[in-house]
Amino acid sequence: MLPSRLAICLACGGRMAPCLVIAASPRCHDCRDIHAPLRADLVEPPILRLLPPLEPESEELEAA
Ligand SMILES: [Zn+2]
Fold it and tell me: Is position 62 within any domain?
């Protein structure tokens, strides 16, 4: 089984070639050719974006 989270290019978000996924490359062929920088929003765990926003009660934590 291939890790599906590595199946996208971390620079352009496009689908990765299977050979690059196996090689654990963070970028697709096109981005490797142009040395495209990785996008932070793609590198960060996507699950963090699925969590609901925190309730506005965090001010209490600052006093602790
Ligand atoms: Zn790419």
Answer: no
CA 62 to centroid of ligand 1, rounded, Å: 41
Confirm whether 31 is domain-assigned.
Answer: yes
Per-residue pLDDT tens over the stretch 5-47 = 558 899 999 998 888 888 888 999 999 999 999 998 888 765 6
Helix (H, G, I), strand (E, B) or coil at 8: strand
Instruction: Say yes or no to pLDDT of 2 above 50.
Output: no
CA of 55 to the centre of ligand 1 (A): 36
Is residue 4 in some structural domain?
yes
Number of domains, the chain: 1
